[in-house]
């Protein structure tokens, strides 16, 4: 929580300049991922998150990204059910796509 608070003090110049990256090997569980996402939502904008980062040198790391996306969608679905965010499938789908790929592509400039 302290890192997220400090991170918020140094934003500027670009969208979500400083990201709350996670050592996923410590949070490679449903509970760890949910905790990371919930902390991020409390201190930042979830829609600006660049998603799960991994070294991806191993073919076996790819299922971890699918698992992350499922945890992310579960959390978003729960918020919709509680009425915390609008039930707008198009907007929510765009947010999941942004978190899963578009934000990282924009942040790191992969396809430029």
Automatic annotation (TrEMBL):
Gene3D superfamilies: Metal-dependent hydrolases (3.20.20.140). Belongs to the metallo-dependent hydrolases superfamily. Uronate isomerase family. Its EC number is 5.3.1.12. It is an enzyme of class 5 (isomerase). It comes from Enterococcus hermanniensis. It comes from the Bacteria. It catalyses: D-glucuronate = D-fructuronate. Pfam families: UxaC (PF02614). Keywords: Isomerase. GO terms for molecular function: glucuronate isomerase activity. InterPro entries: Metal_Hydrolase, Uronate_isomerase. Pathway: Carbohydrate metabolism; pentose and glucuronate interconversion. This is Uronate isomerase. GO terms for biological process: D-galacturonate catabolic process; D-glucuronate catabolic process.
């Amino acid at each position: 929580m302290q890192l997220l608070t400090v991170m918020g003090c140094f934003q500027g110049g670009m969208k979500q300049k400083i990201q709350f990256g996670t050592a996923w090997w410590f949070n490679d569980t449903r509970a760890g991922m949910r905790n990371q996402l919930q902390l991020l939502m409390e201190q930042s904008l979830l829609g600006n998150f660049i998603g799960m980062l991994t070294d991806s040198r191993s073919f076996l790391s790819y299922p971890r990204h699918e698992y992350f996306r499922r945890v992310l969608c579960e959390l978003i679905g729960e918020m919709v059910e509680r009425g915390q965010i609008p039930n707008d499938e198009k907007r929510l789908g765009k947010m999941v796509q942004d978190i899963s790929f578009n934000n990282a592509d924009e942040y790191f400039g992969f396809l430029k």
